[in-house]
Amino acid sequence: MSIQRIPILKLESYLLVTIQVDMDDTVAEALQEDLTERLSQTGSAGVLIDISAVYIVDSFIGRMIGNIAAMSRLFGATTVVVGMQPAVAITLVELGLSFNGVLTALNVDKGMERLRQAVEAVDIG
Amino acid sequence: MSDAQGTLLLKNEHDVVLVRQLVRQLTMDAAFSLVDQTKFVTAASEIGRNVIVYGKGGEMHWEKLRVGDRNGLRLCFKDQGPGIADLEKAMTDGWSSGNGLGMGLPGARRLVNEFDVQTSPGEGTCVSLTRWK
To answer: Which of A69, A89, B99, B100 supports an S-S bond with A79, CB 3.0-4.6 Å?
Structure first.
């Protein structure tokens, strides 16, 4: 049985992942692998993860997002998570998931802005 | 959904998705607020995953509750896995027997109104989650 793979698109020079399915652990792990591969191939400076269609973020998915951010950093890329639903944010705080080292923004536009700022900062520094 | 109770077998990773979908439908039937729906489904996802990953499979029994004019929902997760050797430790934030961050049980507890764990080494685990509207 083949694993469903979440598409990774290119937006300007960044990678965009829009999560629109209820992921099980296998799909989440495949996404991490695919992103690692793409970052390594493209040398992209940023990853945008759009979770505006995600209504449940449990500790496994939260961990996946944290892993993606950490892994991207190893490739010199910045990760911004956008579109977190308010109910998800409240639940994550209650769950105790801190999302340290993960930048967030309200939507894709603001996320792109954030990415450009972060990438500029890296270039200047 | 008009049934008052039911059982969902939990065998493989994909069943966690079924847990979320079913519990989401049940919370909507019970007219929980969106935040309460999200919290309860997330708690169910945490415990459901434990059953599959640590408990070697099991089942989730769900039950619609009604006390007076108050709606509620109870989920009982049972597995025949190894049981939790040190429950107190497992209920502490940050402790994990796997490579997780250890927030499954204490996190789930914070997300529900009533939380109960019955477990012993070699005898499996039974976790009950309840939320009232």
So the answer is: A69
Residue located via tokens 């990853």: A47
Distance of alpha carbon B131 from alpha carbon A20, whole angstroms? 27
The per-residue pLDDT for range B105-126, each reduced to its tens digit, is 888 999 999 999 988 888 888 9
**Contacting residues of B for A96, CB less than 8 Å apart:** 93, 103, 106-107, 110
Q: Decide if B19 touches A, using CB distance below 8 A.
A: no
> What value of ipTM does the predicted structure carry?
0.90
Per-residue tokens: B52: 């599959």
Q: Under a CB-based contact definition with an 8 Å cutoff, are residues B112 and B129 in contact?
A: yes
Separation between Cα atoms, residue A109 and residue A68, nearest integer Å: 20
Question: Whole-model pTM?
Answer: 0.91
CA–CA dist B113, B15 (Å, integer) = 24
| Dist. CA A93–CA B78, nearest whole Å | 27
Burial class (CB in 10 A: 0-12, 13-18, 19+), B90: buried
